[in-house]
Specification:
By secondary structure, the chain is an alpha+beta fold. It has 3 domains: 57 residues; 229 residues, Endonuclease Chain A (Endonuclease, Chain A); 165 residues, Endonuclease Chain A (Endonuclease, Chain A, 2-Layer Sandwich). It is 46% helix and 19% strand. The chain has a 16-stranded mixed sheet that branches. Strands 8-14 form a two-stranded parallel ribbon. α6 runs parallel beside α7. The longest helix has 28 residues.
Length: 486
């Protein structure tokens, strides 16, 4: 019996070290960023069992067998649709401003579609105005309404949107609503789900959170896009979830969330509709590619004519495209670069590009919230401040709530607005959407909004920062250690 137990112990020990060796090889073979690989290896060797479980759950970007198969079947049809869409030559352009040309070329090469012109844009900064405008568009809808949000929090203004959506569905408008399972957990536990389904709204819970699913796909994948499409001619996107900021996370003590949304009218709505169709098919298996362009949209009046490129990033889409797009935009800056984000944990490449921009004479301003709802991200972001300040970057800390706007403005000409945070999760993991706009009118409007944020912020002084307490430095470095996972 003693020999038997010894054999069992040796087999278990051998299996244990073999498993660690296999995971180590997988980490090295994946050729991930060095800091990310080192972090995972340290965790696995310091906390072997927990580290292995964590890596198998969160270490690799895996959609799951069913979604991978759907993506494989989806792209041939989507690419064929895009080729047919390309026949509308009058809505495309390959000529852009000097600062925007490189980024639009990158997007055209990677996504197979040039910049789309003939669009009217409206920047909306007030949540109440967003909701009122959205409800008005819903009431005028005739054919279809598609919605996609990370968070739908019942209460206040969100309930008014739900009521208007149910009214539209009862009138025969085809309404689809896709919400992230984790972000909208409160909604899925509320009576609104049954009420809206009874009204005829097709509701889908994206990337369902379930412990059993951890064996089939990565559990922390999140559908982070915010999109509304109405009659394939009007679209919304930006940083705002479907919430009333008067009630959302009221007990956190950071103030109301400050967001920015873009309302679009024109051919770009069909481009965004294609992204929505891909998300819908990945989640449900149902194909709903948008209808052909309406002549009224093609011949839209040219006032406020904006050229737009839409970047869809996330699993199953062009790999690392948003990271490449941000780098291209930053390196295109010649005079000024303004960035706003609630969560700032950049990759080494992005950090280097931002510092180099400042060192070559570009005025670089980064606007972050002074108080954050994520303590770990808040501390991790501070680990980058010294390097940025030494390079000449100005860091502004917004004091009037949680600045949730995600925007990049280059030389008041090239604008990037959408759902992407400057952190690892948005850059490498989440399903995100970004608008790229080439135009000084839109750029100047965005600059006014960003300058308003700056006027409500405090400028971080490098002397003050370098004299901060030693224990804060320790927490920053410890938090930075986990930055590859944030």
């Amino acid at each position: 019996m003693t020999t038997f137990y010894k054999c069992i112990n040796w087999i278990l020990l051998l299996g244990y070290w073999l498993l660690i060796a296999i995971i180590t090889l997988r980490i090295l073979i994946k050729r991930r960023a060095v800091n990310s690989a080192m972090a995972w290896l340290l965790i696995i060797y310091i906390l072997p069992l927990l580290g292995i479980i964590a890596y198998l759950s969160f270490g690799e970007l895996y959609l799951g067998k069913r979604r991978v198969e759907r993506a494989r079947n989806m792209w041939p049809y989507t690419n064929k649709w895009l080729k047919n869409f390309n026949q509308y030559n009058q809505i495309y352009t390959t000529k852009h401003s000097n600062v925007a040309q490189s980024l639009f070329d990158l997007c055209r090469y990677r996504q197979g579609i040039p910049g789309v012109k003939g669009n009217q844009l409206q920047l909306i900064t007030d949540t109440n105005s967003v909701i009122r405008t959205l409800i008005n568009d819903i009431q005028l809808a005739r054919h279809n309404i598609e919605m996609l949000f990370y968070i739908w929090q019942p209460g206040g203004l969100a309930d008014e949107v739900a009521e208007s959506l149910m009214t539209a569905a009862r009138k025969g408008v085809h309404c689809r609503l896709m919400l992230d399972s984790a972000g909208s957990i409160t909604f899925f536990r509320s009576p609104w789900v049954d009420k809206m389904r009874r009204a005829g709204i097709h509701i889908v819970e994206a990337l369902q959170v379930n412990l059993l699913r951890m064996f089939f796909r990565r559990m922390d994948l999140r559908q982070h896009r915010k999109v509304v499409i109405i009659d394939n001619c009007i679209a919304y996107t930006g940083s705002m979830n479907l919430i009333d900021p008067r009630f959302f996370k009221k007990n956190v003590g950071i103030g109301q969330w400050i967001d920015l949304m873009v309302r679009m009218k024109g051919p770009v709505a069909t481009t965004i509709g294609t992204i929505y169709a891909c998300d819908w098919e990945l989640e449900t298996g149902q194909r709903i590619l948008p209808a052909p362009l309406d002549n009224n949209i093609i011949n839209l009046k040219q006032e406020n004519n904006h050229t737009i490129q839409v970047i869809a990033s996330g699993p199953g889409f062009s790999e690392e495209i948003i990271h490449s797009a941000l780098l291209t935009a930053i390196y295109s800056a010649r005079e000024q670069l303004i960035m706003t984000t609630p969560y700032f944990v950049p990759s080494d490449d992005l950090l280097y590009a931002i510092c180099i921009a400042a060192q070559r004479g570009v005025e670089v301003n980064i606007i972050l919230p002074l108080y954050n709802d994520s303590i770990l991200v808040d501390w991790a972001s501070r680990a980058f401040f010294s390097e940025l300040l030494e390079a000449g970057v100005k860091i502004y800390q917004f004091e009037n709530g949680l600045l949730h706007t995600k925007s990049v403005l280059v030389d008041k000409q090239l604008s990037l607005v959408g759902t992407v945070n400057l952190d690892m999760r948005s850059l490498w993991l989440n399903f995100e959407i970004t608008l790229v706009v080439d135009g000084s009118d839109f750029g100047n409007e965005l600059a006014c909004i960003q300058n308003n944020y700056i006027s409500n912020s405090r400028l971080l002084d490098i002397t003050y920062w370098e004299n901060r307490a030693w224990w804060k430095r320790v927490i920053e470095r410890l938090s930075y250690f986990f930055s590859p996972f944030l």
